[in-house]
Amino acid sequence: MFLSKYENNICIITITETNKLDAFSAPELRSYIVNIINNGSENIIIDLDNISFIDSSALGAIVSIMKILRNNGKLMLTGVNGIVLDLFKLTRMDNVLNLYSDVDSAKKSLL
Amino acid sequence: MNILLVNNDKKIICIQELWLLRMGHTVKKSKNGSEAWSYLMKYDFQIIICDEASAIINGVELFKKIRNHIFPHYIYLILLLSDGKDAIQSQSLKSGSDDFISKPFSFEVFHNHIESAQRIVDLEKKLTNQKALVQTAYDNLSKVKSDIDNDLEHAASLQRALCFNDPGEIPAKLSCYYSPVTEVGGDTLNYIKLSKDIFFFYAIDVSGHGISSAMMSVSLGTMLHYLLKEYLNKNLSNNDIKNIPLEITNHLNTKLNNDDHIDHYFTMLSGIVDNRKNKIYYVQAGHPFPILYHCTSHITEIIETNGFPVGLLKEASYDLDEINFDHNDRLLIYSDGIFELKESNELLDQSWLKNIMDNISNYSFNDASKYINKKLDDIIEQKTQKDDISLLLVELN
Fold first, then answer.
1. DSSP per residue over A1-63, as a string?
2. What CA–CA distance (Å, rounded) separates B138 from B132?
3. pTM of this structure
4. What CATH number labels B2-131?
5. What is the pLDDT of residues B319-349, one digit of tens each?
6. Any idea where the domains of chain B sit in the sequence?
């Protein structure tokens, strides 16, 4: 369900096989990324380009990862639009999370 | 093993009996199929060794009869055949025979066939025992599941009762729709009368769903009642009363973020309706946009205010917003579970709710409430519900 690749010490995660993050997939995403963090990655991009829906459990998982990386890394989200962006705006998370239009923009933000 | 020999040749049957006794088995002899059947009805056998040529009922017919009858366990059937009777071999296979021994045969051949039968009988016995164990485990689990289901059913009734427990007459009409995705849910909503002109209301959606979310939503309801009581005991001025939603939201956010044991957070829309000033003072904490129908202008407005959910970020700050209302204006508050419902294969959205509010504008409050409830019931019946759904319709006085 999740694929990761590394470019210049940045871990880029894409989500496959589903276009939604919910109570079923969110805990899996969280433990997948926590494992990546525990293996030394500090800068993580989650590409949500093909995700058209996330629920409260997924938002909780994303914020939880953001908190883990807060002091010694950076969580970046790319491809956020539609209902997902609406949810981030409704919950003001668009002010807190690092959102970028695409992976390249996210990568450049670290330069 | 208990073995039944069926053979009308006295000499052969005695030799076979001797061999089987030497191998440690218990043996009963029968001279024909008919007698064998009567023994089968009285005694328990694991193996039957039958000569194909037994009189009255021959071996093939006996085996057919055995296979058509239900015995408490599998019976292994061996047919003794005259050498070269391929046709009978094929026929007896169809009738349910497990093995053949071609006559004449030595003790060694006979012994090997019996040992082979013993393995099958032992395996069948083992499988039967395992099946019994699985059945016992299944029965125990079914009992536990039934107990849990009963508990959940009671919990669901209790949660519904707590969710909207009519705590006194207030200067507004209120109607609630509540549909958890499992028996109990993480949504809750309620109102509390503060004075004859003022009441407090809240709608909460705890993240996730199921038992832990439900427990949190019930305890949040209790906490809110307790906090309100504390504020009211302070004899607050009217100006201070309007800040109650803000104070409560800040308090709960701090409490949840300081408790490492709580994984959940929640969205909440809470407010004070002040009927003397025709104002609602509210805090929007990540709950979906409320919808207000203005009775005088016949305009339905989606109130697009936002805010941090409660318990997600320690540093979150909240705003106290205001809504001015007129007599008979209607306010709709709902959880985002509605947006996972589909009508005619299309996901519901705020426009759908706005249209509903327009459609029911001429209805009496009771009819409007019934219309919404039926509409949601009909959609939920199509089994498209994936999240808890709660909805509060308020007609302001």
1. -EEEEEETTEEEEEE-S-SEE-TTTHHHHHHHHHHHHHTT--EEEEE-TT--EE-HHHHHHHH
2. 10
3. 0.77
4. 3.40.50.2300
5. 999 999 999 999 999 999 999 899 988 889 9
6. 2-131, 164-396
What type of residue is B65? K
Closest chain B CA to residue A67? B313
Counting one residue from chain A and one from chain B, the pairs whose CB atoms sit within 8 A come to: 46
Model pLDDT for residues B160-207, shown as the tens digit of each residue: 777 666 556 888 999 999 888 877 888 999 998 888 899 999 999 999
B386 contacts A91? CB cut-off 8 A: no
User: If one looks up domain B164-396 in CATH, what number appears?
Assistant: 3.60.40.10
Q: Which of A22, A63, A83 sits opposite B312 (nearest CB)?
A: A63
- ipTM, two decimals: 0.92
A93 vs B contacts (CB less than 8 Å)? 308
Residues 310-349, chain B, touching A (beta carbon < 8 A): 312-313, 316, 336, 339-340
Euclidean distance between CA atoms A63 and B75, whole angstroms: 64
Residue of B nearest to A95 (CA): B308
Distance from CA of A64 to the nearest CA of B (A): 8
